[in-house]
Here is the input.
Amino acid sequence: MLDAIELLQAIGADASLRHASTDALVHFLDQKGACGTLRAAASCGDDKALYAALGQAPLHKPQITHAPYNDDEGDDDERPSLPPDQPPPPPARP
Here is the structure.
C-alpha cells in the first residue's frame, strides 16, 4: 500500500498528471509498476475502486449539526414561527 500512496502523491504533486487523461494516467502507472488494482481504479475513474485498491473504506463527511446561527442569510420579511397555541401578532400599522 505504501507504493500506492507514493504513486498517488506523485500524481497529486504533478499538475500535468493531476489533470491528465485516463489513458495518460494509466500509462504513467504502468511505467511506475503500479499494481493491477490501482491501474484498474485509475482506468475506470471510480473512487470506490481506488478505496478497494488501497484496502480502505470511504470516510463519510461529517454533518454539521451545531452550526452557528446566521441571521444575514434569511429574508427580512420572514417572521419567526410561533408555537401552535399562540395567536399571530396584529398587523403593523403604516
Remarks:
- The longest helix spans residues 2-13.
